[in-house]
Amino acid sequence: MKLPAALKKPDLMLKHFDHIVLTVSDIKASVVFYTRVLQMRAHSFGDGRKAVCFGMQKINLCVAGQEPRNNATTGSGDLCLITTWTPNRLPDHLRTQCVEVLEYPVAKSGALGPIISIYFNDPDENLIEVSSYERNAA
Fold this sequence. Notes:
Blueprint: H1 5-8, E1 19-23, H2 27-37, E2 41-45, E3 49-54, E4 57-62, E5 78-82, H3 89-96, E6 101-110, E7 113-121, E8 127-132
Parallel strand pairs: 1-4, 5-8
Antiparallel strand pairs: 2-3, 3-4, 6-7, 7-8
């Protein structure tokens, strides 16, 4: 996939996300879900904090009130993740993991163009969207 010209500029103020924070009710259960269902890897950092990682991305997990600057509530997250899997492979995988698909296939607009998305919830009802730029495979 060809990068847009704006992403090739070396003097951009912002380059990419380093990490995001997701507020959850049970960090251990969330680590299990994200490692089992989305094949992320568990990561420990700082003073016993937990995160899940994939590629060069990290999702820090916290419970409500753990971070005083964060006013997010459990279940308020809405993430879009990009997969290299074909659009038809993910629904089959989610079924084997006993994850209820909310909506699929959904044509959406991603950061780099058209995507096909599938929606489901994590254990805290955070909305998870996994998308593919492989539109022709749908």
